[in-house]
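tl;dr need the bound structure. longer version: we got a ligand (6-diazenyl-5-OXO-L-norleucine) that a collaborator sent over and nobodys looked at where it sits. i said id run it. heres the input, straight from their email, havent touched it
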Amino acid sequence: MQDIQAIVDSIYDSMVPRLGEGKVADYIPELAKVDPNQFGIAITTVDGTTYTAGNALTPFSIQSISKVFMLTLALGKAGETVWNRVGREPSGSSFNSIVQLEHEHGIPRNPFVNAGAIVVTDIVLSGHQPREAIGELLRFVRYLADDDTISIDDTVAKSEQATGFRNFALANFMRSFGNLHHPVEYTLGVYFHQCALSMTCAQLSRAGLFLANRGRNPLTGHTVVSDRRARRINALMLTCGHYDGSGDFAYHVGLPGKSGVGGGIMAVAPGKASIAVWSPGLNKVGNSALGSQALEMLATKTGWSVFGA
Ligand code: DON
């Protein structure tokens, strides 16, 4: 039996001297205000126990990690037809790249690059007003984490709305190809709010637990998705969850994972645990610098890599 708390504590101790490494995202002005000298880690094992260290109870902006939850909702709503509008291949480009979209006729490479996530949000929006779609996502995440205190930070959403020129370009471009079915302001309104979900590492590690446990949340006993769907979402996280850093993350960590520019990473050790790390400073490809290092240490210490111990 591994002593998970001892592992989490030793990872935290190794990170303390390095606090502040990386560069905080500043293209969303509200995110630039976050103190970079923070690091949190939470692991929830499939028996439902949560182990924490550092700033694991400090809420942060989950940003692109929300794309996993929105994809889960979209697959529930539209099933495999989601894949008519978005691909399943790694992009090899940055999260907000526009170049591939023209060659590929407005069909984004995967659901985790911004363009793909915007299409996924457009799917969930169908038949709803934007505020209803935002409410649906918030209820879903609260249900997954079994925690009704989770909220959306409106200031962050507004900050991105005011400066999200790149996302407006991507959305307008896809609309011109007919791959966005709602007005750009509606879809992006929902997208900016989903990215502004504010969660702690502890909450996030619980929200991801269904992916570590064959689609069933052991905290509530609810089946969230089928075994097969959980496996497939994990496959997408492994291959596409870190954009053009996905290969490197698989090489060093070997776990399905999804990063966000708020500095969070959610990772899944199938059959074992769901993990959340957070430290605001980002590396060159926009993923948490210390968060990636911490997960590599975790994989080494636990032998949880999906490629073998
Ligand atoms: O759309 C954006 O640019 C942000 N709301 C989310 C990007 C993000 O988190 C990329 N992840 N590393």
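gonna send this back to them w/ a short note. The domain at 66-196 is CATH 3.40.710.10 (Beta-lactamase).
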